[in-house]
Amino acid sequence: MTITPSVSIGIKDGKIACICTDDQCCEGKQVVDAGGQLVTAGLVDSHTHLVFGGFRQHELELKLRGAEYLEILAAGGGILSTVKATRAASADELQNKAADFLDQMLAHGTTTVEAKSGYGLDYETELKQLEVVAELQKSHKMDIVSTFMGAHAVPPEFKGNTEGFVDLLINDMIPKIAKTGLSPYCDIFCEQGVFNVEQSRRIMEAARNHGFKLKIHADEIVDLGGAKLAGEMQAVSAEHLIAASDKGLEALAANGTIAVLLPATSFYLNKPFARARNMVDFDIPVAIASDFNPGSSPGYNMQLAMSLGYLKYRLYPAEILTAVTLNAACAIGLGDTKGTVEIGKDADLVIWNCPDLDFLFYRFGNNQANKVVKNGVLV
Ligand code: IZC
Ligand code: ZN
Prior knowledge:
Helix content: 25-40%
Bound molecules: 2H-imidazol-4-ylacetic acid, zinc ion
């Protein structure tokens, strides 16, 4: 919901307490004047790979010479080069780096993020990543939802033995991580050369049996049938879906699975854009996220993703706003407390340097977040 200029929002104890239609709000001593500018709920970035060692700028030249994302991964680079750097990094280094990203995300209007592990691919390093997220949940203003993604790639020690790694995930890592209670969600990269549909199904079944809610990177690059699997497994969300078939979309619609779309990744990998317009027309709830990670989307500015939502997905402003607030909150289990400006919800708000919603998507490339309120406090 956007607020017209003559409305005041009252905040008490970090929650929205009232929405008043005159200048004298019934709540609050400190007044923040929005100056007639657009106010929305804080952005919810429902798909990030927040905690990682190193960066991957050396892939730039490889890509210019024609190497594809999956080829770089198959040659032991890509995700696996980040795994090497993340294994080598201390928890403190990872935490400080991620905290800087979170500061910047807040400054760009993001007030809640999801954070996936998946750069450890062994129990110790996955745990290190998840513990970093747990520390940040305590120490940082940002609200963070943690996802275990041990099934992000096949680690070098299991090269040529994907089945062996799937067995390790199912028999060892998933049960042990479940016991820590650190992550409510389990995600998996179902992709050509990574985990096929049958392996993904086995991993998802194990994760579900251990109490995880399910997410899946589905049909990002190749249409393997990941969207169909997401629907069959009643995953909370299916992510990417660039190559998803109509059958896949039907399965998502039939099971209420949320499509988390990542347009900055299509842009960055020079790939087609997901069929967002069709998805909305199929009645699939669509969320849009940054996919912030060091390989396929090394940027956390949700405003770029939002502009691409207009320019490439051809979604309407209200659809894009819903995709980065309420639908995104639902994709990470926070639909009851975040994602709209409503009495009783968390007071996460952005005052934009924009007179209206159209303006927010029409400008691009600059940070249009003017003031950010997080849990009722100006940050
Ligand atoms: O580090 O490349 N797609 N996982 C699946 C990613 C992108 C992150 C990465
Ligand atoms: Zn991802």
